[in-house]
Amino acid sequence: MTKFTDILKFAAVRVGGAAELKKLLPESKSAKSLKTLADDRYLSLMMLWVFSSGLKHSMVAGKWPDFEEIFFAFDLKRVAAIPDETLEALLKEARHPPLG
After folding, report:
1. CA–CA dist 84, 73 (Å, integer)
2. In the prediction, which pLDDT does 17 show?
3. Given a cut of 90, is residue 83 above it in pLDDT?
4. Which of 34, 35, 48, 98 has its CA at a distance of 20 to 30 angstroms from the CA of residue 41?
5. Which pTM was predicted?
6. Contact at 8 Å (CB) between 53 and 7?
7. What's residue 95's pLDDT?
């Protein structure tokens, strides 16, 4: 398995150094700040970064209101109750990029 530090080194080389990479990365929220988020906002934030990891960030950001709608504003109980069949249909939802 590749170490995360090696991934960071490789990414830094691709963008012109560690300082340039730092400029491209989002500012991390502090643990204290994250603890103040409601559960639905925490899940939304986590999913935003998961979906953004493999896609163009501006595209995901532009479609994020659709994600919020489709996934019930990330209400944990509602999301957890999504049946497999419904989740399969959501994977094909035209308003957002494929999830699979």
Report:
1. 19
2. 94
3. yes
4. 98
5. 0.63
6. no
7. 66
Please report which helix (H) or strand (E) contains residue 87, including its range. Answer: helix 84-91
- CA distances in angstroms from 89 to 46, 48, 75, 86, 97, listed in the order given: 22, 20, 19, 5, 13
What burial letters (b/e) apply to 16-48, b meaning 16+ CB within 10 Å?
Answer: eeeeebeeeeeeeeeeeeeeeeeebebbbeebb
Q: Rounded to whole angstroms, how far apart are CA atoms 46 and 78?
A: 17
Residue with tokens 């990330």: 74
Tally of CB atoms within 10 A around 52: 16
Residue 45 has, within 13 A of its CA and on its CB side, a CA count of 13
The alpha-carbon radius of gyration of the chain (Å, integer) is 16
Report residue 100's pLDDT band, with 50, 70 and 90 as the boundaries.
very low
CB atoms within 10 A of CB 96: 19
DSSP annotation of 96 reads: S
More confident residue, 69 or 93: 69
How many of the other CB atoms lie within 10 Å of CB of 8? 13
